[in-house]
Request: fold
Amino acid sequence: GRPRPSGLAGDYFFLPTGGNTRIRATLSGPACVIEDHSGRAVLRRDKRGDGSGPINLDFNAKGEFDIAQVSAFYWTGVARDFAKDFLLPSHLWQLTTRVNLNDTCNAGFSGADVSINFFRAGKGCPNTAFSDIVLHEYGHAIDFAHGGILDPGYSEGFGDAFWRDFARKPAD
Reply:
């Protein structure tokens, strides 16, 4: 009856207390809310349990548009977790994360509506909703959250430094 977030890796299971139980889920959480622009609905899963054991929920994405949604959701969560020491809890809460925009070979941060935006595959480029690009765009969002993007060159460098620092962090 109430929202419950998944783990950082998107894992979720629910142990019903008995009887028939239904779980509905979308790609929305503390780090971001996915907005899909492929012309299809945002990934949604609906599972039923008979009360005999846990209900495991997964999104099992297949195809470019579904994978872009899950990838952007996962990596935005990872970015928020990585940056938690220098973000206020209200900074970038449920960041609008648009995927499968009808363009190619780029991605971007928008300060106008505080969102990160990723394009479809095409013209020899992959769908841009993947780890390095999500982390880079989240770097712009962090720069914006700390006073606005005052210098575009600095913000580009900050986005690059954010994903490079993440790539260099020691494994847990």
Summary: Residues 96 and 115 are 5 Å apart (CA to CA). The helical segments are 64-82, 131-145, 152-168.
